[in-house]
Amino acid sequence: MLYPSKYVNIIINRIIWDTQKNTEADEKLALKREEPEKKIKRNKDFPLMKSINNIRFITLWIFIIPFAAINSCLYITTQLHHLINSDFWLFNAFPYIDGQASISRVTRFFPNYLIFKPAMFLTSYLLVKYWLYNKEIIKHIDDNHKYIRKFFFFGIASAVMLTLHSIFLGIKIDYDIYKLFRRVVLLSFIIFEVVAQTYLVLTLNSLKNKLSQYINYKILKIKITLVILLIAVGLLSIPIVTMPGNKFLKHALEWDYFLGVTSFYLLTFFMWKKNK
Q1: Mean pLDDT by 10 residues, the chain (276 residues)
Q2: CA 19, 23, 24: angle at the middle one, nearest 5?
């Protein structure tokens, strides 16, 4: 039996309408199912995002505090002579280039050590927090990563060495063993810091695919380059540092190396993407 064309059109339109309605219902149901899944994922990632935001905050201050403290001491030594004893005056000095003074030379006397020591103690505390947050992030991504313990150990050790260096700075004891101890503490801080940074960038690079939504890989590559440069400069400087003479070159290397180490933390701030 044949139906009039108008009834055929009605039937076809009804079928199309029912199909669209069912499709819309399926889509709404799918969205409802996705919402709990997204919520679960957000809740799961919340500790990770919190640690990332904490690291961004801390690394900015790890760069600012020592940089501001040391250069404030340098400014007092070269410009504000009325605040310090004339024995410590410097004129037209820019030790990053001319090496006229070491970092300890401009930070160990009054009132400069009142700026430097508290700044280093605060930096040490922030370093401990920094390495703890890094450990949390990596464990969240890969709980059994082979470098977690290594970068965490050397990172905490570097913070301890910085604290010891700050405590004994300016304390004069005329014993060779004490002078050797101070040199060992300072050298240990530098070595532990560079080793910790090396293991950390290796870890981040190995997890770059899993962390792609959280990090800026271009900045990570710059950090890797910086670490390689710090290692190369450190190794090439061994003959210069261990041999007598070259005082100004040693001082310039010290200031520039300090800038390189602190710049690592500034790059870290820009590497992690801001999460809301």
Answers
A1: 53 60 60 50 71 95 97 97 94 95 94 96 97 96 95 97 92 81 92 96 95 94 96 93 90 96 96 84
A2: 120
214 vs 48, 56, 208, 259, CA distance in Å? 10, 12, 9, 26
pLDDT of the residue at 17: 57
69-78 — which CB contacts under 8 Å span 24+ positions? 69/107, 69/115, 69/116, 69/119, 69/120, 70/103, 70/106, 70/107, 70/116, 70/258, 72/115, 73/106, 73/107, 73/112, 73/115, 73/116, 74/101, 74/106, 76/106, 76/111, 76/112, 77/101, 77/106, 77/112
pLDDT tens digits, one per residue of 237-257: 999 888 888 999 999 999 999
Cα gap 39→83, rounded to integer Å: 59
The domain spans of the chain are: 1-41, 54-271
State how far the alpha carbon of 177 is from the alpha carbons of 174, 181, 242, in Å.
9, 6, 17
**Which pair of structure tokens corresponds to residue 84?**
């310090």
Structure token digits, residue 20: 């669209």
What does the mean pLDDT of the chain come to?
88
Q: Which residue has the tokens 């870290």?
A: 268
Q: What CA–CA distance (Å, rounded) separates 163 from 148?
A: 23
Q: What is the CA radius of gyration of the chain?
A: 29
| Backbone φ/ψ region at 273: left (φ over 0), alpha (ψ -120 to 50), beta | beta
> CB-based contacts of 91: which residues, under 8 Å, 6+ apart?
78
Classify burial at 136, counting beta carbons within 10 Å of its beta carbon; exposed 0-12, middle 13-18, buried 19 or more: middle
